[in-house]
């Protein structure tokens, strides 16, 4: 049985962790270093840090944020936001990230995924896929970029398959319909992605209760469970979730 991993996510803006609902109405959620340290002690398997304003502000990832966080943890750190080329990937990895996540850049230049996988290894390349419901798409989900501000007229599930073929090692899908709501992961979207690829899928967007994490695995097919609001506001703890999942018969590292 696959070991299920818990991945708190630090959405970064202005040097602080922030969290919104449906990608807007951002509120302060603390200091990134203190949060990272806390989550590692709590038993997080991995950590994500997303510079959510980088693409919209047309700038690179803030490397000092990566250095500050990576220097105080020893669990794998995935960094995304503002990564648009191989040089950016190299800089972020040198700053202490173990993996990178790309979204808009991959959509704009799919060959970047292939080149990154060849240059740095598939296991270090995550493609984040943001989507919103659209009945005109064959899967019912349309790909959106630029922090959820631009629909691109492309089917999100078809894009996930293409990313695997290009060499991505992980797919991180987020449904804008569920983001920050704490109403549960978008299981239909997560399942559609996990059914279409053979690489690990990260459930993201909307976790609010213990059962949501279990549902993401058994109904959504996810292997990595990402959450932000429930952790930042101390609604649920990493260890609490792991003990719950183990009690349900899933494999976790306690």
What does this entry show, briefly?
The chain is built from 10 helices and 12 strands. With 254 residues, the protein is of the alpha/beta class. The chain has one domain: TIM Barrel (Alpha-Beta Barrel), CATH 3.20.20.70.
Q: Could you characterize the architecture of this molecule?
A:
Strand 1 and strand 2 (16-21) form a beta hairpin. The protein has one domain (5-247): TIM Barrel, CATH 3.20.20.70. The protein starts with a strand and ends in a 7-residue tail after the last helix. Strands 1, 2, 3, 4, 5, 6, 7, 8, 9, 10, 11 and 12 form a 12-stranded mixed β-sheet that branches. By secondary structure, it is of the alpha/beta class. The chain has helices spanning 32-42, 63-70, 86-94, 104-108, 111-120, 156-166, 187-196, 210-218, 229-232, 238-247; strands spanning 5-13, 16-21, 24-28, 47-51, 77-80, 99-102, 125-133, 141-145, 150-155, 170-175, 202-203, 224-227. The chain contains 10 helices and 12 strands.
The overall pLDDT, averaged over residues, is 91
How far apart are the first and last residues' alpha carbons, in Å?
16 Å
Q: Roughly what percent helix?
A: 25-40%
Query: What can be said about the biggest beta sheet?
Result: 12 strands, mixed
The CATH topology corresponds to TIM Barrel
Low-confidence stretches: none
For this structure, what is the CATH class? Alpha Beta
Instruction: Compute the CA-based radius of gyration.
Output: 16 Å
General form: globular
Structural class comes to: alpha/beta
Order of helices and strands: EEEHEHEHEHHEEEHEHEHEHH
């Amino acid at each position: 049985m696959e070991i299920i991993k818990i991945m708190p996510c630090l959405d970064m803006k202005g040097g602080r962790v922030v969290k919104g609902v449906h990608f807007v109405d951002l509120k302060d959620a603390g200091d990134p270093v203190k949060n990272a340290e806390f989550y590692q002690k709590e038993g997080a398997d991995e950590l994500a840090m997303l510079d959510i304003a980088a693409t919209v502000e047309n700038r690179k990832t803030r490397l000092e944020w990566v250095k500050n966080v990576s220097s105080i943890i020893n669990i794998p750190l995935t960094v995304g936001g503002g990564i648009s080329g191989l040089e950016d990937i190299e800089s972020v990895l040198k700053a202490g990230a173990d993996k990178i996540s790309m979204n808009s850049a991959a959509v704009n230049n799919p060959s970047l995924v292939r080149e990154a996988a060849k240059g740095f290894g598939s296991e270090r390349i995550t493609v984040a896929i943001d989507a919103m419901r659209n009945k005109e798409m064959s899967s019912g989900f349309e790909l959106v970029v630029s922090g959820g501000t631009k629909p691109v007229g492309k089917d999100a599930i078809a894009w996930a398959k293409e990313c695997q073929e290009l060499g991505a090692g992980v797919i991180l899908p987020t449904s804008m319909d569920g983001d920050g709501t704490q109403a549960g992961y978008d299981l239909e979207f997560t399942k559609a992605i996990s059914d279409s690829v053979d690489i690990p899928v990260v459930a993201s967007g909307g976790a609010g209760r213990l059962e949501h994490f279990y549902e993401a695995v058994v109904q959504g097919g996810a292997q990595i469970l990402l959450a932000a609001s429930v952790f930042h506001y101390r609604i649920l703890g990493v260890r609490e979730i792991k003990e719950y999942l183990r009690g349900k018969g899933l494999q976790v590292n306690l």
